[in-house]
Amino acid sequence: MTEYDILTQVPEVTEGISLSLSILTNIRVTKPTAANNQIFEEIGHALRESLTIEDVKAHPIVRAYRDFYWRVLKIDPTKTRPSSEALARRVLAGNPLPKISNIVDAYNAASLVTYVSLGAYNLDMTPFPLTLRVAGEGERFEAIGAKTPVIFEGNELVLCNAEGAILNQYPHRDAQFSRVTSQTTANALIACGVPGVTMENLNDAIEKSVDYINRVQTDPCEVVFRREFSF
After folding, report:
1. What is the rounded radius of gyration, in angstroms, for the C-alpha atoms of the chain?
2. Under DSSP, is residue 152 helix (H, G, I), strand (E, B) or coil?
3. CATH class of this structure's domain 6-230
4. I want to staple 229 with a disulfide (CB 3.0 to 4.6 A). Which of 19, 24, 110, 172 is the partner?
């Protein structure tokens, strides 16, 4: 079996970071389904019954990502929020969640319910081993949904494939080139941890993702590889 590995070049920066990786096959990407809508409705109802917008930022997992944004990414999390927090705030404000595809919506649902940052990468575009490193000054990154490329200052933490292409500005946003598309049949699903987020939290997010995927496609996906990483 192929060895799927994740390495680090900067242990002094990545200390306390953990990741949970699963390789999923038999992925069937379609338009969002009725099952996606049902999942979003279930999660939204539970959130609105138990939380307010002010409660979200105090959640310990959200707090951990916010602290990492401030301390490591030098990003103000009150202006650029961690993805899971942004999704929860949308629901609590009564705004609709983005609908992209059955599979991407399933991952978003898992992130929303667990507060964990998840990245999903087309396996064909993701040769291993992956590496966590610091971006080079002037290095370009084309993020999903961005109108223009990001030009890094040279202190950002990035996750790259074996060819050096940036998959993720860790754990903030993912690359356009490796996104899940209608042609994707296998992917690397990564739960991105930071200090204060446990491996149990990460594995829970992965398991929720698989569960939701199997609710939104007619035949189940197959998890062919799982591994945990701690730095």
Report:
1. 17
2. coil
3. alpha beta
4. 19
Written as one letter, the residue type at 173 is: R
Q: How do beta strands 6-8 and 130-134 pair?
A: parallel
Side chain identity at 176, as an amino acid letter?
Q
Three-state DSSP class for residue 56: helix
Beta strands in the chain (DSSP E): 6-8, 18-25, 117-122, 130-134, 140-141, 150-151, 157-160, 166-169, 173-174, 187-192, 222-230
Where are any strands of DSSP class E within 50-138? 117-122, 130-134
- Per-10-residue mean pLDDT of the chain, 231 residues long, equals 84 92 97 95 91 89 94 88 91 90 96 95 95 95 92 93 96 95 96 97 98 96 96 93
Q: Are 63 and 57 in contact, with CB atoms under 8 Å apart?
A: yes
Q: In whole angstroms, give the CA distance from residue 147 to residue 132.
A: 25
In this prediction, residue 1 carries a pLDDT of: 47
Nearest-angstrom CA–CA distance, 88 and 18: 23
pTM given for the model: 0.94
C-alpha span between 213 and 220 (Å, rounded): 8
CA separation for the pair 189, 15 (Å, rounded): 22
Distance CA 97, CA 49 (A): 17
Q: What is the pLDDT of residue 119?
A: 94
Give the start-to-end residue ranges of the domains of the chain: 6-230
